[in-house]
Amino acid sequence: MASYEFRRIEKEWRQYWAENGTFKARDTNNQSKYYVLDMFPYPSGAGLHVGHPLGYIASDIVSRFKRHKGFNVLHPMGFDAFGLPAEQYAIQTGQHPAITTEENIKRYREQMDNIGFSFDWSREVRTSDPKYYKWTQWIFIQLFKSWYNLTSDKAEPVETLISEFETGGNGQIKAACEQTAVFSAEEWKNYSEKEQSSILLNYRLAFLSEAMVNWCPALGTVLANDEVKDGVSERGGYPVERKLMTQWSLRISAYSERLLQGLDTIDWTESIKEAQRNWIGKSVGTSLRFQLKGLEQNVEVFTTRPDTIFGASFLTLAPEHELVSAITTPEYKEAVDTYVTVAKNRSERDRMADIKNISGQFTGAYAEHPFNGQPIPVWIGDYVLAGYGTGAVMAVPGHDSRDYAFAKHFGLPIIEVVTGGDLSVESYDAKEGKLINSDFLNGLEVKDAIKKTIEEIEKKGIGKGKTNYRLRNAVFGRQRYWGEPIPMYDTDNIPKCVDEQDLPIILPEIDKYLPTETGEPPLARAKDWTYKGLPLETTTMPGWAGSSWYYLRYMDPKNDTELASKEAIEYWRDVDLYIGGTEHAVGHLLYARFWCKFLKDIDVVPFDEPFKKLINQGMIQGVSCLIYRVNDSNKFVSVNLKHQYETTPIYIDINLVSNNEVDIEKLKTWRPSEFMNAEFELENGKLICGTETGKMSKRWHNVVNPDDICNDYGADTLRLYEMFLGPLQDAKPWSTQGIEGVLRFLRKLWRLFHNNTEETFFLSDETPSKAELKTLHKTIKKATEDIDNFSFNTSVSAFMVCVNELQDAKCNKRSVLEPLCILISPYAPHIAEELWKLCGHTESIALTPWPAFNPEYLVENEFFYPISFNGKVRFNLNFALDKETSEIEKEVLSNEQTQKYLEGKAPKKIIVVKGRIINVVM
RNA sequence: GCGGAUGUGGCGUAAUUGGUAGCCGUGCCAGACUUAGGAUCUGGUGCCGAAAGGCGUGGGGGUUCGAGUCCCUUCAUCCGCACCA
Questions:
Q1: Measured from the CB, is A691 under 7 Å from any atom of strand B?
Q2: Which of A304, A647, A661, A704 could lock A285 by a disulfide, CB 3.0 to 4.6 Å apart?
């Protein structure tokens, strides 16, 4: 037997696992289950880089550990296969996205296989597979067929709503819905089918409506709020505009409160929970109506500070507010029209970039103060958002900084109604102080004043306490090809859903992946895109549709009659451990929770939250290398010389560099046109590059492929090394400094099982020494605890300590090394399997029981106490652990060295902490 | 502005959860074996100091016999949200 041949070993064991189905999760049985899930990847053309496997390695360690612990482990993998890049590629090349996707998946699969993950590939899912998206479409139909009853606080079938309408109209119904005029049962029955349909759309959880959407012209599609960052699209960074369009949306807002409350029941990091709380944006306040002078209409506003009502000196409406044109007086019409037009045409981005510029326009209208009858001018201003609250605010410049800025700018009155600030300098926004200038509120504290004001408002019948959420309904239709078709069709402008037995509606073939000449989505190009002879919906679902429920499909991936069988869902239930990146904080993770709650309401799943525990792995960053070109020349200078010149940095491939030294010959062949005839100014004979840490990307030429690492060092080394890099959650730059140490460790481990020349496998059956058992059991304890704490880096370190100690002890005893093999197997499964086989076992190590920890081996009967004086450790003394404290004190005091440090003084007291430390207080 | 995190040797990190700061690994220094090594092994390595000793966990303060760990305050960096009434 030769030395540690990782390439051969790893290849053989991967083959063994595949052939023997070692990691197949068993269907329902009596064994306890454990469900470990990774966020499945979108298979991009770039393949995996070393950052991707970080989370997969961690989840794989947990999975393997749980198998050793006797659990039936579900550890599946699949692909989020619908998405924009494949479609963009298709537009450029004409290549069908399905083909590109298939190729990419193949590549991903190979790369993952190389790392030796224990995925149960027999359960693989792909969101673009019709057998899969059949059920994505099915869920959509269930959403369409449901409304949200606020009384029972759950989704219910639309039939129940219709029968309510038929018996009592909609006056008594409390539902999460759009504003709908009140009608009686009689009126309902007299409505046409079309009228009824459009009313029902106001209630359905999947609904078609005309709404302001984020339109991205460059991508030719609408985007959900979480797909837009800083006014540009998250993918591609293209500008996004507001546009009024008829769109399918999901009424996620109905679930705002449950999505918020649910956060308290799950074990996720505080930062992600906080991000979701923020996104949901609950705010408790009051809605109240201001009567307009000389008009019938009133303006409804939402405020969290009803107590400041006597400080309200004007109202501001969003430019898009529906009352604007009705209330504007002829005198101001032109100015208002101009303002509204400008505001509407400004993109989201411009509006955000322009926060500091205050703009607004008086409408000429006045409202009446509900308590003192004073006239209050009505303005419009784009600092008020149409989409939040009622799109109108009562402006209290004294106690709201935005109203303050607006009032200052337009010279409107600023009234102080809460004490504590200096209004000549800034507004006083704090919810603390006493009310003044406020009639019946004078003298009250803010908290009490809020209560009192709400009482008075309700007494007058002009408003009531109200809770608002920032969470907007999610736009669901995309004007794109490569996504799930929305299973809806249209009869005379009445949207209807496809019969469930006709699912899936399969994505049709089309000639070009572009919108039609008339601007319709690509699906409009499909021949005969109809259902029952009627036109099918042409938009497709967004990327997050398929990923919102995929965790359920793994439980029963081949089921043709249900998304997963009741028994499978009942057995596997929610995900015990979910690992993935933080980038999905408010997208995928919120939508998946929403769908889970909905599926609970319609009795498909028996739980309320899909992911019990969530761990976010940190990003492995790339380190890019830069060289510096002297401006207007073909000369490149070493990094420490660049301050002498005006230079431009250029990113070069990291493979051209070792230890920050650029290989100039390689550089020349890398890009001959640029470097072949270049001049280089060196320092100490070397061209040293600069470095920069950031995302790993082709663009910066800093991508490290895990395949290369597996080939050079082995998959086990890669796995151990990625874990050894630091805590899983931390971001860390990739560096191969140190990977050698891990490989060296595995070689040492290998040698423990072999004779000195590494040639022959050799274990002894002798009884281990006390010290050897201590080393082993210390490691068992640590390895077990660390996995429970997801502290994988410290385990690797513990293995190294263990192997070092056993090597020092020249230990080759079977009863020590076999358990060690099991401990290491979740981390470095290939070498563990090989050594296990060499030990004479014929079965895979994967299901071998985890070694039991025996604390007796760690018990010591004496301890080498540090003796400290006022907390400073000076020397050590050995005492038996069961020695009386008074005895220890006596001996410490009489010790010669103690006398030296006491300098003749008497100690005030002595503190003896058993097995820890002794402190002499002087 | 609001919220979340993080600050420890040259570097990545560790610390029995209030008890000897720096485990493990890199890097560096020295040595051994070698024709040779970017292989392997051994020893050393927080800083200052010849030593005794002193200093040391971003800074300042506090609680404690004892603080990297708890409290207050301050600084720096990273991430998320943000005209949300």
A1: no
A2: A304
DSSP-derived pairing of the beta strands A620-630 and A221-223: unpaired
Cβ A382 to strand B below 7 Å: yes
3-state secondary structure of A228: strand
User: Considering only residues 829-868 of protein chain A, which place a Cβ less than 7 A from any atom of strand B?
Assistant: 864, 866, 868
Q: How many CB atoms lie within 10 A of CB A191?
A: 14
Reading the block at residue A301, the tokens are: 């506003």
pLDDT in tens, A290-305: 999 888 889 999 999 9
Q: How many residues does chain A have?
A: 922
**CA-to-CA distance for A71 and A244, rounded, in angstroms?**
53
From residue A91, alpha-carbon distances to A94, A223, A511, A812 in Å are 6, 19, 11, 63
The gap between the terminal CA atoms of chain A, to the nearest Å, is: 64
Task: Report residues 105-134 of A contacting strand B, contact meaning Cβ closer than 7 Å.
Answer: none
The token duo for A54 is 């970080």
Q: What are the residue ranges of helices labelled H in A728-853?
A: 739-752, 770-788, 792-808, 814-824, 829-838
CB A109: neighbour CB atoms within 10 A?
16
- Give, in Å, how far the C1' of B43 lies from the CA of A808: 15
Q: Are A147 and A204 in contact (CB under 8 A)?
A: yes
Residue A570 token pair: 């009942």
Q: How far is CA A51 from CA A71, A114, A618, A640, A734, in A?
A: 29, 15, 9, 30, 8
Q: Which nucleotide is nearest to A281 (CA to C1')?
A: B84
% of chain A with per-residue pLDDT over 90: 56
Dihedral of the alpha carbons of A245, A246, A247, A248, in degrees to the nearest 10: 160
DSSP state of A309: G
Task: Tell me what pLDDT residue A602 has.
Answer: 97
Query: Across-strand partners of A623?
Result: A693
Nucleotide nearest to A793 (CA to C1'): B13
**A798 close to A782: Cβ distance less than 8 angstroms:** yes
* Measured distance CA(A463)–CA(A455) in Å, rounded: 10
Q: Using CA atoms, how far apart are residues A915 and A334, in angstroms rounded to an integer?
A: 86
Provide the pLDDT for residue A394: 94
Cβ atoms within 10 Å of A186's Cβ, excluding its own: 9
The answer to whether the C-beta of A297 is closer than 7 A to strand B is no
ipTM for this model = 0.93
pLDDT along chain A (922 residues), means of 10: 81 95 88 95 90 94 96 96 89 91 95 96 97 97 97 96 93 89 93 94 92 79 78 78 84 94 90 90 90 90 93 92 91 92 71 72 93 93 86 92 90 91 84 89 90 91 90 89 95 93 94 84 92 94 94 96 95 95 89 96 96 91 85 85 82 80 85 88 79 80 89 94 92 86 92 74 87 93 93 94 90 92 96 94 95 91 88 86 87 84 80 89 84
- The pLDDT assigned to A347 comes to 61
Please list, residue by residue across A658-677, b when 16 or more beta carbons sit within 10 angstroms of its beta carbon and e when fewer do: eeebbebeebbeeeeeebee
Burial class (CB in 10 A: 0-12, 13-18, 19+), A129: middle
Query: What DSSP designation does A573 have?
Result: -
Burial class (CB in 10 A: 0-12, 13-18, 19+), A373: exposed
The Cα–Cα gap between A72 and A53 comes to: 23
Cβ-based neighbour number of residue A717 at 10 Å: 26
| CB < 7 A to strand B: residues 228-287, chain A | 229, 269-271, 274-275, 278-279, 281, 283, 285
At position A852, the amino acid (one-letter code) is A
Distance A802 CA to B25 C1' (A): 14
Q: Do A738 and A717 form a contact (C-beta atoms < 8 A)?
A: no
pLDDT at residue A1 in the model: 39
